Amino acid sequence: MSVQPQENRPILEADQLGMQFRGTTILREISFQLQRGETLAVIGESGCGKTVLLKSLIRLLTPTDGHVIFDGRDLSTLSPRELALERTRFGFVFQQAALFDSMTVGDNVCFPLKQHTRKSAAEMREIAYRLLNEVGLPETVYHKKPAELSGGMRKRVGFARALAMEPEIMLYDEPTTGLDPIMSDVINELILGVKHKRHVSGIIVTHDMKSAKKVADRIIMLYPVTRLQEGESQMIYEGPADEIDYSPDRRVPQFINGEAGERLMEMLKQQQPAYPNREISGY
Amino acid sequence: MVPKQRIFSKRPSFLQRKWSGLRSKMSELVEYTGDLTLFFGQTVYWLVHRGYQRDTLVVSCNNIGVLSLPVVMLTGVFIGMVLAVQSYTQFRFVGLETRLGAMINMSLVRELGPVLAATMLAGRIGSSVAAELGTMRVTEQIDALESMGTNAIHYLVVPRFLACMFLIPALTVMADFMGVLGGAFYGILLLHIDWHHYWHYSQQFVGIFDVFMGIFKSVFFGMVIAVISCYQGFHCDAGAEGVGKAATKSFVISFVLILFMDLLLGIVLESIYSMFWTPPNFF
Fold first, then answer.
1. In Å, how far is B117's CA from the nearest CA of chain A?
2. Is residue B246, in this structure, part of any structural domain at all?
């Protein structure tokens, strides 16, 4: 196997990734590549395995099949210590921010720096203030506890913490879920800002078509394995995000324009409907 | 016309169902024991290879040791006094009330001090640790730790394990001391036993090995409490109900294992004692 030059090879590659929990298949043969500087959106209905896929990529959940290759290294072959080091090259924004309740906002943002660098307290504080400023939070939140913040502010602190180690890939787990439209836009702008200013790659798991179209270059649509026939692929669509036609009056299966949309429609017609007792146009 | 055949389903008999249930429970128990052993092994691995972080150890020592001190002291005093109340009538009946101190102090340092202190601490510390780590698991804080390249067992379990292993014996010494004082207070001041004989017989019958035996056992009790509570927290089911169940299971399993370890260590230590020393004749 020829080794591709570093600048040409994808930064992350999922190869036939599969996951089973207690005999139930959640992910089946997921394969994709993420290029440097690219943002990929993973969409699909609840329970189709989007978050499981995201967590499998950094082995927070261990895939039962397949491999994840990050920057040319298969993560399954690494020792716990090497894996921990590789994880510092990722930034993960969790759905509910997952801030440490017992620490202040400042300590949360400084946490990865304390664990992995030898920076002084003053240097870490300065970085934390800069990151909080970058995500649009005032310096006054530094000494507050996460419980004192609103949902949107917590998400932004989660962003700041994920950026602390200057990651090469950002993983976003439903970053706009539970937020009002204005705050969702703020978060989308942050994702775009991170992409353009820091030139990092990203994978965003979302239900929100508008967000997916706005922030992603490419999208993948997953379908629940439980409703697939034997031999069918779980990734029912993979293509450019430009083809998404997001408008509130359009039904979910009709959201992609052109030939790709028609192909997707054909595929969806062959699947069992998600809600068999409801008539949904397009099925 | 072909006569309709009656098909009798082969329902398992009552005994078969019970046997099948028992077999499944036994398999769960074996699986649980295996998981717990692996968890303990990982804790020891991280402790040996990476040591501990001073700041997290200090916090754990404060929560586990310092904050438990008042309730342990109170428990000790009451055990001593209750022993005096319960035994005095029987001892006076056979004219041995002056030996009351020996009986109280021997029971305290060998058995009741360590076991009751550990039981009380399993309730206070074990449930609290299981609930805290369980909440962290449910709110993805443990995943957040791992995603930042920090090993969750090293960061969360090792300091709690060390604090329990070293401070539960220290708390047991305190419980023993307060129990001795409580027993003496009730016996000498309220039951008017001659103080000289009370302490004389105590000194004669309670040896250094008895004190060592209690403290030695409490080291294992501390390890049991730490490992069980952390394990239950790490493997907590989703939601508030999951956290509640983890806290309850942590206490119940710790309690059963404390009694089991007490029996096991009692047998071993008694054998060692009888190899080197002759037990004192109480009468």
1. 28
2. yes
pLDDT digits (tens, 9 = 90+) for A92-133: 999 888 999 989 999 999 999 999 999 999 999 999 999 999
HSE-CB of A273 using CA atoms within 13 angstroms: 11
Nearest-CA distance A95 → chain B (Å): 9
Is A198's pLDDT higher than 70? yes
Work out the number of other CB atoms within 10 angstroms of the CB of residue B234: 20
Nearest one of B105, B102, B112 to B281, comparing CA atoms = B102
Contacts of A125 (CB under 8 A, 6+ apart): A106, A110, A142
The residues that bridge with A39 in the sheet, in sequence order, are A202
The reply to whether B281 falls in a domain is no
Number of domains composing chain B: 1
Q: Which residues contact A126 (CB under 8 A, 6 or more apart)?
A: none
* Chosen from A57, A94, A166 to mutate, greatest number of chain B CBs within 10 A: A94
Given a contact cutoff of 8 angstroms between Cβ atoms, the answer to whether B160 and B128 are in contact is no
Task: Quote the ipTM score.
Answer: 0.84
Chain-chain contact of A85 with B149 (C-beta, under 8 angstroms) = yes
| Mean pLDDT, rounded, for B105-116 | 92
Contact A90 B143 (CB under 8 A): no
User: Spelled out in words, what is the top-level CATH class assigned to the domain A6-89+202-272?
Assistant: alpha beta
Shortest alpha-carbon distance between residue B155 and chain A (Å): 10
Ranges of H-type helices in B51-68: 54-64
Residue B26 lies in a domain: no
Asked if A257 and A226 touch (Cβ cutoff 8 Å), the reply is: no
Type of residue at A169:
I
Q: Which domain holds residue B82?
A: 54-275
Task: Report if residue B39 sits inside a domain.
Answer: no
- Residue spans of the domains in chain A: they are 6-89+202-272
C-beta of residue B101 within 8 angstroms of C-beta of residue B240: no
